[in-house]
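Aggregate trends can hide what the representation actually does to any particular protein. This step matters because it turns folding into a mapping between discrete strings. For completeness, the protein is quoted in full, as a sequence line and a line of structure tokens:
=====
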Amino acid sequence: MEINLIIVAVYSYFLGSIPFGLVLTKIFLKKDIRTVGSGNIGTTNVLRTGNKFLAITTLVLDLFKGYISVYITMFYFESLTSLSALICFIGHIFPIWLKFKGGKGVATYLGVILALSYKFFLIFGISWISLSLLFRFASLSSMISTLIVFLYAYFFEINNNVLMFFIFFVMILFTHKENILRLKSSTENKIKL
């Protein structure tokens, strides 16, 4: 059991820590994404380079690493699925290769919940789109949608994932702490529709 735990922790962290936003912008734009916009390595900041294709590719790859980490674990080490999900997510936020300064985790979280159940993915997606159309803040939509997924799991799912979903919600609040301050001061950028 202990060796399995180590194996899962290592590949989950490694997958999560791959900084696709940084890699793609360096290869195709010859830029360091950390010097652009907010300095974040995630999809929203890659979009600030003006290259929508790279932003979408970053989103898909960050989502995929969360999905593949959980999928592998569900197949080979089912009892450690929650651990794999959380460590992959932590790897994205705190990658060792970037001095533990990574992304905000939303795309990787999406991949994780898609692997767990398409229902969670759909709930997040519908919530995010609805809230974005209503308020036009990507950060606010992400935080509230993560809360909605947690509440759905708490009230309607009979499984052991409720604590994990709560931890995800708290961590996404943490990674969006600067966005929260900007929302409070009315300086947060709106989504351009």
Summary: The chain has two domains: 1-99, 117-193. The CA atoms of residues 143 and 172 lie 7 Å apart. The radius of gyration is 16 Å.
